[in-house]
Amino acid sequence: MAYRQPNQSIMNSGETGSPVHYVRHANPPSHPSMVGEMPSVWLLRDGRRANHIPCLPNFTPSQESFPSITFSVNGWPGVRVEDICNQTVYVDHLADFIFAYHGWQTTNLALNWPGYLPNSSSDTSHRRIVALSGEHGDREAITRQAFAQEIASLIAAVYDRSGRRPVARGWESWALNKDNVQPSDIIILSAHYYRDVWIPELYIIERGV
To answer: What are the Cα distances from residue 90, in Å, to 31, 39, 63, 129, 191?
Structure first.
């Protein structure tokens, strides 16, 4: 067994196997969208840090039309885009019919990514999704898991086409490409409804952390 300096237990008190590590896993934090504005930095379950993706001033939780739809895994807020796309993770309360009480047939979903042109109805970053399908007694409403898949799919589609889109000066570090931000770096925490469109709240995992 490797020798451990006496003060190393204090310096690394949150490492895997430590009491702090187990306390953190046993006590997930409250979802940030439930307690106020989204924090600039979010600590993931494994201890890594993730940075909040900037949103337009009119797309902040305090401006939402009604309560947000949140995503968590085993009680811990957030789910990685890559895991949803690969169908290797299921969100908590995955079968909830999240739009059941709205009576919508369809609804709008958009991705406001910093450094790119605003959304339009013909843009890849904007899509209309089916909220309620089927006929009469055989109708099926979209679930929380399916909505997470729609968001992840939208992000992946925008990423796939981002190489052809210019990034505004000063936002180069947020560019969607293999050198900056990839779907494997992106965490979905929640989605918020603003007048007529759902906007997801996203975080980027710090690389090398």
So the answer is: 17, 24, 29, 20, 17
Tracing tokens 């957030």 back to the chain, one arrives at 78
10-residue averages of pLDDT along the chain (209 residues): 38 46 59 74 89 78 79 94 96 92 88 74 78 66 95 94 80 89 95 90 85
Q: Which two structure tokens, joined as six digits, stand for 190? A: 């929640």
Q: Which amino acid is at 193?
A: Y
Phi, psi torsion values for 79, nearest 5 degrees: -145, 140
pTM for the model stands at 0.81
Phi–psi pair at 72, nearest 5 degrees: -145, 160
pLDDT at 89: 96
Distance CA 100, CA 199 (A): 19
The burial class, CB within 10 Å (0-12 / 13-18 / 19+), for 21 is middle
Tell me whether residue 132 is exposed, middle or buried, using C-beta atoms within 10 angstroms of its C-beta: 0 to 12, 13 to 18, 19 or more: middle
